[in-house]
Each structure stands twice: as structure tokens, then as C-alpha cells.
Amino acid sequence: MAFVTANWNPLGEAFYRKIELYEMGWNLKDGLRECLVAAAPYGGPIALLKEPQRRSPSVRPQLEIYSSSGVAMASFPWKSGVVKQLGWTVCDDLLCIQEDGTVLIYDLFGNFKRHFSMGNEVGQSQVVEAKVFHSPYGTGVAIVTGASRFTLATNIDDLKLRRLPEVPGLQGAPTCWAVLTQDRQSKVLVATGADLFILDYTSPPGLSPQATSIVHMCVSFSYKYLALFTDSGHLWMGTANLKEKLSEVETKVRNPPKQMAWCRRPKSQQPSVVIMWDGHILVAGECKNTISYHLEGVSILVPELDGVRIINGTHHELLQEVPASCEEIFKIASMAPGALLLEAHKEYEAASFGKCFLSNFPPEPFVSMCRDLRVLNAVRDYTVGIPLTHTQFKQMTVQVLIDRLVYRKLYPLAIEICRYLKTPEYQGVSRVLKHWACCKVQQKEEADEVIARAISLKLGEAAGISYSEIATKAYECGRTELAIKLLEFEPRSGEQVPLLLKMKRSQLALSKAIESGDTDLVYTVVTYLKNEMNRGDFFMTLRNQPVALSLYRQFCKHQEQDTLKDLFNQDDDHQELGNFYVKASYKEKAQIGHLQSAVDEYNKAKNEFAAKATEEEMRLLRFQKKLEEEKGESLVGFSLHDTIRTLLAVGLHKHAEQLYKDFRVPDKRYWWLKLTALAEKEDWEEIEKFAKSKKSPIGYLPFVEICVKHHNKYEAKKYVSRVTPEQKVKAHLAVGDLEGAADAAIERRNDGEISTVLSRCSPSTDRALVERLNRAKATAAKK
Amino acid sequence: MAHTGRRDAPELPDFSLLKRLARDQLIYLLEQLPGKKDLFIDADLMSLLDRIANVTTLKQHEVDKLYKVELKPIVSTSDQLCFLIRPRIQTVKWIADIVNSDKASGRFRRYKIIFTPQKFYACETVLEEQGVYGDVTTDEWAFYLLPLDDDIISLELPEFFRDNFLEGDQRWVTTAGSALRLVYSLYGPFSKVYGIGRCAKMVYESWRDQVEDGEQKARQPEIGNVFLIDRDVDFVTPLCSQVVYEGLVDDIFRIKCGSVEFGPEVTSSDKSLKVMVNSQDKVFNEIRNEHFSNVFGFLSQKARNLQTAYDKRRGMDIQQMKTFVSEELKGLKQEHRLLSLHIGASECIMKKKTKQDFQELLKTEHSLLEGFEVRECISFIEEHINRQISMIDSLRLLCLLSITENGLLPKDYRSLKAQYLQSYGIEHLLTFANLKQIGLLVEQQPGETLTVMESKVGKLVNDKTAGKLTDAFSSLAKKSNFRALSKRLVLIPKSGEEYDLRVPRDMAYIFSGAYIPLSCKLIEQVLERDGWTGLEEVTRMLNGHEFAVTGGTNGTEARIKTDPQRIILVMFLGGCTYSEISALRFLGREKGYKFIVLTTAITNSARLLEALLDNHA
């Protein structure tokens, strides 16, 4: 603590410090000499390719991947072409750009993912130099060929190659170049001699006249600033749009630098550029003086949002402008509150001592800062090796940090952090667990059961886990069985269906769709099956799934009548087939042919009743047709009852009689029919004959009632005497004979009947009758 | 109202919100097709639309002409056609034909189909198969619930019954689930959900799934408990003749979407008159739940009161007269008009229903319910068929006989069917097939052994899904057990005792004191017991599928009978009758509950049986 300021160096108003992040865990024999090195920003991983120029199959260059602290993550011999450049994507994938223009992509652990090409024309002229750059649109790659042509892809995940126009007057390779992102477009900035080309010819304002050539350039992390190094040893700093010059510093070194990087941070007091040569680096800012550091061995600079990391064979350091708050606290003789607090802390050894003196200060920032610091400490740990500064952490967000940890398969740490920061479960823990499970399913050496059990145990009840996603991953790895097992855990059956269909488990997909209760989903599967399977199998499948079958039948009823028939045929459902033909018969106006088919089917279905009924219908139909031809009476489509009634109405009694006998119409029905028909015609004579023809099976009350209905009381009375005793009262009442009704009721000594008659009497006109009835009622009650 | 309810009955929630939501969405959808357009509306959506948006509203949103969907070629000259339809394959096919014939004649138009309440994949398949998928835009009008009255909400989906219970087509289950979800999100959370029936269970699950996806808000609930019931749990009640005024009006004049058209015989003029029948109609509101025998007495009392009110005019000075005219006269006139209308209707009902055959019909029904003199009943039914009195009524009596007797004897089954076919034609072979399928008209099975069909169905159900929903045709395996149920639940009051219909003592009054509706009795019992405990035997006879689940709110709170706890939503899947609603209103008054009936449609015996005919499809 006492020596906090020991490594501070002033540069103009500001201080710069260089602090050690890690002593590197790797053991490099020759340091970084003759190595291609790429270190990802935000404390990302480091890739090394030793002696990339080696081509002989016996001695291949070795590709190694380390964490920022130098912990090995992968190492393998490079068997592909000559690599010109290494770089990292925003998702921690390694890009290896070969001189033939092919770009190979590996993950953090050296597993090959995919490759793409920067264009065919690269082939002969070869890649001379390549750069990997980041923008809001993802990770991009730019190359320059031996023919001095630039090709650029802004986002490698959505590859669109742009071949840039030729640079006029450029002979051989450009001296230096950089990629800019401006106005939502990626551009290449090329220096030839003292001139800079973007697309327009331009020269930076106020470049020192001694310079004849720009030998190195670099763009700031944010693409806002540009730094140029000239052969005269001048460093020009300005805005990337070349409109403004910030400053120019004479370094007095004329060798072209090995690397250059902007070292600034948001709200920086003193933006500066770090220039590296063999053996030393120089920090140059707006002021005239500079800071110089000595370097051990070959080093590389890794520009960051708020500083520059310097990596050499043994150490990993961070060079940055001292943040204002640190400066306030630790600057010698500082009287800022922070500094005083620090003094107090030293006295009283209480960490949050000063808080007590602040009455209106909300505690949240304090608590969240403490949390952030703990997280940062955890990831900076040597074993994890992500040396993030607080500024970087805030810029990259927790989500991305979690992603990074997931890429490194540091699942437990990721989960701990999610829990500690109280990230909502579905963005935090659940997401990590899903990645873990997706990784787990790729472990080829473990058995399906073991993996499935492990996954279900660990994922348990975590919210928002999509098992179908994990299962899809398993399927992509060729583990269909495992995928099915995993799908079983998916609580929403609907989610399982698409993958099951993809895996050709159509039967299972159908069951799951049915289980989901979503008929649209069932129907989707049915349509899919219909197209995939042959008819027989398709019907067979449906047969085992009544819900799907009903749905499909409903559809066929309206759209495909013939399919419906085939369905019934397949099922040997003769009953339904019979029904089908019956329906067809009356749709197409009484087709005897259809009815015959129906009879056959009903017989097969052993439904004697339906078969017989249909046969009778055929007979009736033939009869009706014949009569229609003979008599011109429209009968087809009528029921037996209606046919007889029509015949009686038009006086075809004989034909009616014939039907009555042929179809064994119950006597009662026939009597009712005939009686009604005759009454309709008011053929009283015929009715009387009919009544006398034989004993009526329906009794004689209907005769009375029907005559009354047709307002003929005179005829009605003829039949009253023939009515059975139980119905006598009713019959008398029907013809309006109160006296007769009263007699009948009293005779039968029936209380209910007496009351009925009473209710019909009016006390004024039928007084004598009422008295008689009341007396009878009294006697009946006494008894 | 003759009976005064408990004073502490809670207030009903305001359901007019449902209409507002529906109207706003419809307007939004119409605006999605800017410019003048002709609107084609499914025939059965016409009255529904009437309740939501009138013609003026539609015109305001550039609807030029309105047509009814008739599945015939169209004559519209508009460049934009909009179709507001139920998701039915036939209708979609008709639209596809229109598009194709326009194409053939080189005519360019824009087409938009608005499906309500939702679209089905099968409909889109038809558009695709007919090659017009790209020419037509589709939308959904999520209009699930139409409030018919203060305490009745309907999905207005009569086809729910046939599709679900006969065809085994479960596509409407999600719709019912969404409807429940809508009620839940506006008036919930519910503290307890009870239910019985396969479909009820599936609707419950569908609702549960939908709710789990969304977030839950803590809010003061307006509806406490929910009871879901399948229509096939109780087929007896809707098959009985209705004798309560509202039910009678529905049986005779057919109430459609809460309104009824009275013909000249009622209005005693040469015109028909369409009137809304709901609680807004003061006269109707007082007689709707009354047994018909009381209605006339009530109406004449009402007429006398009205006369007295009119008579007040006599001896008034100018000022009083002015007040009378401005304040009371309009109300009296209105009441007068309604009163004469209902008197007309009652007279008309009287003419039809007090005839001797109706009395005998009722007697037969009551005998069947009691299981008394069954042979006489069969003769009556036989005569009913032979005399071709009424196609639907005969069928109704046959079904009632079958359910109450656990099926017909093989001999009767054959002979009655044969006679029916002689009367009404061979196509009723299909009707009988349907009735058998749904379990309404079956042959008695000897002994208690599994029937062939049962074991066939049993084989189809694999173990995993058995508990869920696979066997679409469970009704095949079902016995009605009506007699045993009736004994256990005491559905038939002791005969011989005088039943005063003016002062009902139980729900049986809606059937002249002869029978307490099974559906309503179940609801009463479950609410009383707060679940199904003690009703195990009953649920076994009803084929199970009962459930009682505590809702989202914590259990302790549900114990306290706050107001919302006494508001109970009863959801009938497959329709409910006005008589059942009357019975529930009675139960509510007795126990201090308020029932809200949510049904897929209002039904009665005729609608129920017509849905099972096969002579039109």
C-alpha cells in the first residue's frame, strides 16, 4: 500500500502506471520470439503459433492456446497451410488466416469449427498481411494480397466479401494500413508514402513536413482516433476522420516501430499512444515529454478499452493512465475525501468506516461496487485468467462475462457469479446449465443413460430450461437415442414435436402432439405423416391414435370423401362404411346401388338390423319409383309412413294396403294413418265403414277425437258408445256432453274423473250436475 | 319475484367490459384493410355481431355492403372483400372458390379472412391446397365471450357439442381454455376450481398451461370459485321438457343470442317483433324463473298494478301531470308494452302446452324419471312414433328411456328403431349410429361385463396417455347409471306429497317438483363439501374425471368466505339449458351464492338432438 505511487510516471497533467497482472504460467523456451501471437481484448485468451513459416511435414509449427495468465488450454500441431495472422472473435473463437486466403475457425479448446475463404482471387497473389477487427456488427477480417488488393469482411458470421478499389500509384505492399469503422461502414486506411487513402485521397492535417513516409499506424479501440508514425520519427495523433490533429510528438527514433497502440480510457485526460520497438516502449501523449519503459524479450501489445496490456515470454502487464479516483486517493499529499478516508482506515481498520458520516448517501452503489469487485477478483484469479478492469467489466456486461466463462467451460464459477449477482434465473443459472448440458451431450465416452440422468439431476427444476434445445444438440452430435431420452424431460409436449419429426420419430411425435392438447399441432404432424408415409402405414398410424384419427376424419368429411372411405376400408370398419353409403345414397337422390353397397357392408359388420332396414328401404324405393312412373305421384325420398299417407290421401287405397302388408306395418300405425287420412278428406262414410271393418287396435277414442278436431260432433258421437269404459269420460267431454261424462264418472266412482268433470262445469248453468257430482265425490271419499 | 333471496348476496362483476374489448379489436382488424370493403359474415355470427357493433359502427370503418355467407357465388363489386367467419373448412373452401374464380376471370381483389375466435391449421391447409394461400390475408378476432345477461356468458359455439362429444374432435378445447383464461385475467384469480368430465379436465389443463405462460397479477378477485362440467355428465336434464317460463320461451320460440322473435300470434298484429329477453326487461326478469303455472297469476297482478299506476293521473293538477308524463309515463308505457308481449307469449304457450297430449308427455317423462310404469311409457312412445307426432320429441323420449333404464331391452331397441325408421326414413340409421356412439340410445348389455367396444377402446389407449386424453370415444364405454345416481343424490322428491310450485322448496320446482337436475345437484353437493369427498360412489358412476384444485391464491385466504368467494362461475362444456340456469339462480338465493353461467352455447332438447342428426351434413 505504501508504494502505490512508486510505479507512477507523469505525462503532462496525468500519471501513467504499469502494473503486473500475472507472472505467466507458461513455460516458453524462446519467449515470444518467432511467434505469431494473438490476444483477445477484455482479458481474453492468448494464441501462439511458433515458427509459423515451417512447412515440412516432419516439423510442424505448434498452435497453443493459453488463458491471460498463461494457463494452457489447448495445444496441437498445425497441419494446415501457412498462417499469416491469428485473431480472436467476439465469441472467443480463434481465427487462423492462411496465406491462401482460407480462414479456419477453432474454439477455445482447439476444436475445429468451420472455415471460409476470403475469395478465389487471393490464390496466386497470396495474403501478405491480415487484420482481425471488431465492430458493433461482430468480428471482421481484412486482408491485403501480394497484388496490393484489399478484401474485407465486416462480419464473419454473415460473410459478405468486399473487394476494395485499387490504391492508385501503389507499388508493392503498402507501408502500413489499418481498418476503421466509420458511419456504420468498415474502411481500410492505407498509407503510401506520406499519403493516406481511405477511398478519397487525403493527407493528415499538419503532418510534419520532414516526413516522407508513414511507416506505421494504429486506430484507437473506439475507432475515433488515429495515430501515424513517420519515417522522420514523428508520431502524429488525430481523429480518425482526419479532420483534426491532436498533437505531434517527435520521438527521435527513426526505426519503424514493431507495434503501436492507443492507450486511453473513456474520459481520459491525456490520450496517448504506446509505441513498441525491440527492447523498449514509449508512451507519447499531447505534451512534449514521453515515458519510456525497458522491455524484457519479445513482447506484444494488446490494446484495451482503458489501457494496453503487454505480454512477453514471462510476464503479463497492464499499462494505463491512472484513473482519477486512484489518483485522488494515492497522489502524494492528496487532501481529497478518498485520501483522508484511506488514512482513517489505516487508523481504525474498518473497511466501510466512512459510511457512517454520510447521511444521504444511498447504499446501493456501495454494495454493488463491492459485489463487482468480488466478481472481478474471482475472474482475475490465476486459474481463470481473465484480467478485467472495472471499466472493461462494465462495458462488456455480466451477460458477456458469463458467456466467456461458459466458453471456457467454467460452469460452476459462472453459476456462482449468477447467483451472487442475483441474475434472473432464465438469463443466468438456467442459461449456464443449458450450455453445460449441451456440452455434456457431446461426451462421447459416456453412456446415454448416464448423461441423461446427470442432466436431469442437475437441471432439475431450473426455470426456463428448454430440454428440446439440448436434445437438438444431442441429435446434431448423432445421438438420437440420447435426444429422445432428453426430450422426455421436456415438460411442454408441444416443444418436443419438431425435433421428433426431424429425427423421423413420427409416431412419437404424434403422441406428443396429442398430449400437448394442441389440435393444430396434431394436425401439423398428421399432414407431415400424410406426405412422408405410404397410405397404408399412414392409416395404420392414425388407427392407433383416435384423437388424430377424429381430426383427420373431420377434415376428410369436407375435403376428401374418398379418403374417408379408404380409411374405413383400411380399418375394416364396415359399420361406418355402411353409414357412408347410406349417406351417399340420399345425397345423390336415392341411389339403389349405394344402398346395395350399404347392405353388403352392414352384413359384414354383422349388423342385421341395419342390413334389413336398408334392404327394406331398397324395396320401398323400387316401389316408389314404379308408382311414380305409373301414377305420376312424387314419392321418392319419402319414409314408409309418408308414402302410405300420400297414397291414402290421393285415394290409392289398394297400393297403401299393399305396402301395409308387404312391410308388415303395425296395425296401430295403419289405423292411425288411415283414420287421419280419411278425416283430412272429411270422408265420414268411409270412416264409418273402416270403424266397422274389424275391431279397432287403437280403440275408438281416436275416432271421437279426430271427428271433433274436424268440427264434426255429430259424427263423433257415433263412436262414443264404443269407447272403452276407462276412456268414456274423456270421450263424452270431447263431444261436450257433460251429462254423459258425469254419468260415466259417477258410475266408475273415480275421484279423479269426477274432479275433471267438475272442473268443466260452470256453477251457474250446471248447478244440478255439480251437486250430483259433489255428492258422488263425497260418497267416494267416505268409502 | 315470489321468493326473496338472502340479503347478503354478493354483487356480480361487470361483464360489459368483454363486449368493449371485442368491439375494439374488431375495429382494429377492420382498419387493417383500409378503404371501402364488402363484409361477408357467417350466418350464425350475425346476431352475435349485432350485440357487439351495429351497422353504423361498421360503416364508420368503411364497410360498404354487408352480406350473409351463403356458400353461393357472390355478386359483390367491391375491390376488397372481408370475410368474418367461424373456422370451418366448408366456408374456407367457398372463399377459395371465390378467389379462384376471380383469378380465372382476370379480376384483381384483396381478400381478408377474419376467423373468430381463432383460426385452425386445417383452414390454412385448405387455402394452401386450393392454391390461394398467398392471395388471402388472415387474422383472428379473439372474441371468445358474449355476455348474454348479467349472469350468463356464452361462447356461442353450438358445434362444440357435436365436435367434442360425438366426433371426438378436441380442437375446441383450447378455445374453451382461452375463454376461461380471459375470464381469469379480467375477474380472477380463482381460489378453487372444481370439475367433472374428460373435457372439463382438458379445458382446465389448457387454461392452466396458458396461465403459466403469462404473469400473474395480485388483484382483488371478482370471481371466487369455478366449476367445470361436461354436458355428457348429465344428459337427462336437457332432455326433459322445460316448464319454467324462460325455458319454455326457448323451447317454443327459440331464444337466439339473448333475443327472441315473437310471431304475429304473440304480438297480435301482422308483424313479428324481435325483443331482447334479459334482466333489462323488468317484466321478463320477474317471471323468467317461475314455473309456468304461476306466470298467468303473476302477469294479471302486474296488469292490475299497472292500471293503478295509470289511474294516478286522475285528479292530478297540471304540474303533477307534467311530472307524471316526464318521469313515469315512459316507464309505464314500456312496461305496458312488455307486459302485453309476455301475456301474448304465455297465451301462445298455453295453447300449445296445456293440450292433453302435452300433459301426457310430461306424465311419461316423469314416469321415466321415477322408473315407474315403464311398459306404459314404451307404449306411449310407440304411439308417439306411429302417429308421427314429432320427430324430435319421439327421439327425445327414446333417449330419455334409454338413459333412465341403462339402455333398452334388445327387443324394444329393435322394434322402436324400426318403427321410427318407418315414420321418418332410412337416413335415421345414421342418427341412431350417432346416438349409440354418444351413449344416448343404446341396447342393454347383459351383466356387468365389459362390452366388446369397451375392450376395443381399452386396447387403443396406451398406458402413458390413458390418464390424459387419448380415447376420444369414451362415451361408448359409458353407462348412465341414472337410477342409482338418482337414488344416491335423491334427485326424485318423494311422490304423493303436494308440491307447491309457488313456494318452491328445492330445485325440483323447475320440473314441476318431479326431478332435481343432476348437473345442478352435483354443483350444490361439491360446493357444500368443498370438494368431492363423500361423493366417490357418485363420481365412479359418472365415469370419474373429477377434480378439485386450489387456485393461485393461498389456501388460508380462501377459507374466509369473502364476497368474491361466494361468486361462482359454472362452465358448461357442450351447452346448458335455461332451466338449469333457473335452478342455479334458485340455489344461489337459498345459499347466498351468486352463480355466473359460462356455457359453450345455450341448449335445449331440440338443439341437442338436432346436433346429432345426420341428414344435413
UniProtKB/TrEMBL annotation, chain A:
Predominant location: membrane
SUPFAM superfamilies: WD40 repeat-like
Topology of this chain in the membrane: Peripheral membrane protein
Domain Vps16 C-terminal, residue spans: 465-777
Top-rank taxon, per record: Eukaryota
Keyword tags: Endosome, Lysosome, Membrane, Protein transport, Transport
GO molecular function: actin binding
Biological process (GO), any one: vacuole fusion, non-autophagic
Residue stretches making up the Vps16 N-terminal domain: 5-351
Transmembrane segments: none
A GO term from the CC aspect: CORVET complex
Signal peptide: none
Subcellular location, record wording: Late endosome membrane; Lysosome membrane
PANTHER family (UniProt xref): VACUOLAR PROTEIN SORTING VPS16, VACUOLAR PROTEIN SORTING-ASSOCIATED PROTEIN 16 HOMOLOG
Subunit structure: Core component of at least two putative endosomal tethering complexes, the homotypic fusion and vacuole protein sorting (HOPS) complex and the class C core vacuole/endosome tethering (CORVET) complex. Their common core is composed of the class C Vps proteins VPS11, VPS16, VPS18 and VPS33A, which in HOPS further associates with VPS39 and VPS41 and in CORVET with VPS8 and TGFBRAP1. Interacts with RAB5C. Interacts with STX17, MON1B. Associates with adapter protein complex 3 (AP-3) and clathrin:AP-3 complexes.
Family classification: Belongs to the VPS16 family.
Function description: Plays a role in vesicle-mediated protein trafficking to lysosomal compartments including the endocytic membrane transport and autophagic pathways. Believed to act as a core component of the putative HOPS and CORVET endosomal tethering complexes.
Official protein name in the record: Vacuolar protein sorting-associated protein 16 homolog
UniProtKB/TrEMBL annotation, chain B:
Keywords carried by this UniProt record: Protein transport, Transport
Cited InterPro entries: Sec-1-like_dom1 (IPR043154), Sec-1-like_dom3a (IPR043127), Sec1-like (IPR001619), Sec1-like_dom2 (IPR027482), Sec1-like_sf (IPR036045), VPS33_dom3b (IPR043155)
GO cellular component: late endosome membrane; lysosomal membrane
Pfam family, one: Sec1
Compartment annotation: Late endosome membrane; Lysosome membrane
Residues making up the signal peptide according to the UniProt record: none
Gene3D superfamilies cross-referenced by the UniProt entry: 1.25.40.850, 3.40.50.1910, 3.40.50.2060, Syntaxin Binding Protein 1, Chain A, domain 2
Membrane topology term: Peripheral membrane protein
Any Gene Ontology biological process: vesicle-mediated transport
Entry protein name: Vacuolar protein sorting-associated protein 33B
Origin organism lineage: Eukaryota, Metazoa, Chordata, Craniata, Vertebrata
